[in-house]
Each structure stands twice: as structure tokens, then as C-alpha cells.
Amino acid sequence: MYIVAIGWLYVALMMAITEHNVVAGVATFVLYGLGPVALLLYILGTPARRRRRRSREQAGMAAKAPPADGPQ
Fold this sequence. Notes:
By secondary structure, the chain is an all-alpha fold. The chain contains three helices and no strands. The protein has one domain (2-61). Residues 49-72 are annotated as: Disordered. This is Transmembrane protein. The chain crosses the membrane at residues 22-44.
């Protein structure tokens, strides 16, 4: 997944370098490169974030739960 993002950023950087002025180059890189890649990585990372949140919640519930058998 990251290799595609790196490749896309490289292509967007090459497009930005060919612009005639700096403002157009920065705008090209941000709008064609960083914006779409950030959105793609955010969307594709959602299941992993959800799994991490659930595991943290389960670990917290397990820590708060009283022991199964009482004091002996």
C-alpha cells in the first residue's frame, strides 16, 4: 500500500517541478499529491484503527473486571 503512495507522490513531485512558478508547483503538489494520498491512507487505515481501538477497550474492560474466583 505504501509503495503506491510513494510512487504517486513521486509523480506529483515531478509534475510540480515542471510548473512555471513556485505557487503553481506547490499547489500542484498539494492538490494532486498530498491531498489524494492523505485521503487514501486515511480511508484504507480505518479498519486497523478500529481493531486497535477495540483491543484497547477490551484490555481496559479486562483490567476493570473483578477476579473470577474470590479471595481464598
